[in-house]
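Quiz preparation item.
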């Protein structure tokens, strides 16, 4: 698989993952991140505490890993 096909496959997996998120708060966080919002902006916009944002971020991370996406840290 070439690099472009790999990017397309990853994009499809992420799209499928986001489409099936049941938690509205997590779905909104993913939407904001996709629009370039920083963690600080997301925290402020959704009125989250840092611990809550980190908890939700960990859920997204775990879900993407389970879906087969290898994330950069």
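Solution:
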């Amino acid at each position: 698989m070439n690099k472009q096909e790999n990017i397309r496959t990853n994009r499809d997996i992420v799209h499928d993952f986001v489409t099936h998120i049941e938690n509205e708060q997590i779905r909104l966080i993913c939407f904001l991140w996709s629009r370039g919002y920083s963690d600080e902006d997301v925290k402020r916009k959704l009125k989250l505490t840092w611990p809550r944002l980190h908890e939700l971020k960990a859920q997204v991370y775990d879900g993407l890993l389970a879906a087969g996406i290898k994330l950069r840290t």
